[in-house]
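Q: For a teaching handout, I want to show students what a protein-ligand complex looks like in token form. Below are the inputs, and the small molecule is adenosine monophosphate. Please produce the holo structure.
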Amino acid sequence: MKVLVPVKRVIDYNVKVRVKSDGTGVETANVKMSMNPFDEIGIEEALRLKEAGSADEVIAVSIGVAQCQETIRTALAMGADRGVLVETEDNVEPLAVAKILKAVIEKEAPEVVILGKQAIDDDSNQTGQMLSALLGWSQATFASNIELGDGAADITREVDGGLETIKVKLPVIVTTDLRLNEPRYASLPNIMKAKKKPIDTMTPADLGVDTTPRLNTLSVVEPTKREGGVKVETVAELVEKLQHEAKVI
Ligand code: AMP
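A: Here is the structure, written as tokens, with adenosine monophosphate included.
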């Protein structure tokens, strides 16, 4: 059984994101980029399924600029078997990403696809859900545990009130939540081995997908600076300030 894991190249989570001076987006020039943290969790889970004997091949797929190869190499160094790069300079929105992934999935025929619950750059939280709708497959979002069975899987999901376990038929689209696992670090020998692993490269047009954006970003602005707080001595003082200073009650 194949497991396919989409991995997105995003601004590293340690970087303080800055808005471009012309307000058209965020600065990505000379900024450290890394694999979306939720996708590292997806790769780790796929590798654990392989190590447990439930899967025999792990494929990492990335959509974006040529440098997404580095993101795929990171997945290969962790232990994925091969990569697919769908190369484009366009800003690919979640619906187009889902359409591209659908085309790759139709070629590769995996039974489990593990995406991140969200990419930490746009925080869309849309691709997994759209992909499962386009394919007509089961979906289990925000997974914190996956038990693969025969033709089905028991998946524990993080929901508002706690945890929910559902049984889904394979093939399935899973999206990872933070507590699913702790991703491994790639060892030096595995980083060297990853250099020889194959990466297939294609374009959205090769897959018959139009990536023309459907959204138009009007402006991007920094959040307003927060002013320092004050400590109040009594409830009466708090109510007074809420009424007369903040004017919210
Ligand atoms: P989003 O819906 O944009 O928050 O992204 C959710 C998940 O979809 C990510 O964690 C990735 O697994 C996958 N994904 C989104 N964009 C891409 C991309 N450009 N390349 C590969 N995977 C992606």
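A: Two things your students might notice: The first helix runs from residue 37 to 51. The helical segments are 37-51, 68-78, 94-108, 127-135, 188-194, 235-244.
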